[in-house]
């Protein structure tokens, strides 16, 4: 298996000839066959050998990525879809040394925005064929006695508890397919009227060895800066740094949901007086009842949860720096 070197050790590896396996999610928000085909042709023109597999159901992308990595005949496994597809592929590749590529064909495409991966099919192909590697540290949701998981479930961009997770858990998927991000806006407004805002009990281990406790309406454990699209929520987060930035939205209730949403859209969320952002190495969250935890836009576990950094980063292919 040829393992591509990390940047900056080799910031401009020789282009092309990469052996690429694309895993495409036909249910992802903006997956259009034409755009996928253009990317595929672009890769072949650039000298890559390309295989394509389509998922039939949630979970397939993880199994397909693991299979491709174990077979030992690919350099890059590409997630063609949104953040949920990337999450699944990253889970399958973790610890394998095979690089992760992205063709952004989802609804929000938060990781692509974070890493500067273009949406244009030709440019996305160029990145996969000639890009450099960047360390992508993953968060890991650990099983608890109450909520056993099949195995460690990793996440790429963020994990959220409280109102945030309630919205993701209850969003109307048919509406999401039709209207994209608007489905989340609609669901947020609707749920804010009926949700009773139980507080999340959050224990945060900081890099300097302290444990901070907070009871908050919503907690979002961020691995990257962006949230929900091109909105910066945690300015100090860095996918290549093995700590989290935990956003604590302290005030419960409809009025505060509206305030937080507006502040997020205006890039002012971190400046609100009832918002705190804390750097963390580990986060434990408990909430009354079996409330959900969302990670990268899908419900992945139920409370209580224990969140740590996964031991090994994945190698993400990102655009080569301009010469
Ligand atoms: N063939 C399939 N049929 C139905 N769902 C699938 C299939 N393959 C994967 N999935 C699920 O589709 C969900 C949504 O995919 P994904 O997140 O990639 O797209 P998105 O939600 O439109 O994009 P984003 O997360 O960027 O907003 C994921 O949870 C994934 O598990």
From TrEMBL:
Keywords from the named record: ATP-binding, Kinase, Lipid biosynthesis, Lipid metabolism, Magnesium, Metal-binding, Nucleotide-binding, Phospholipid biosynthesis, Phospholipid metabolism, Transferase
Pfam families tied to this protein: DAGK_cat, YegS_C
Domain DAGKc: 15-144
A GO cellular-component term linked to this record: plasma membrane
GO biological process: phospholipid biosynthetic process
Protein name in UniProt: DAGKc domain-containing protein
SUPFAM superfamilies named among the record's database cross-references: NAD kinase/diacylglycerol kinase-like (SSF111331)
PROSITE patterns reported for this sequence: DAGK (PS50146)
Example GO molecular function: kinase activity
Needed co-factor(s): Mg(2+)
Keyword RNA-binding listed: no
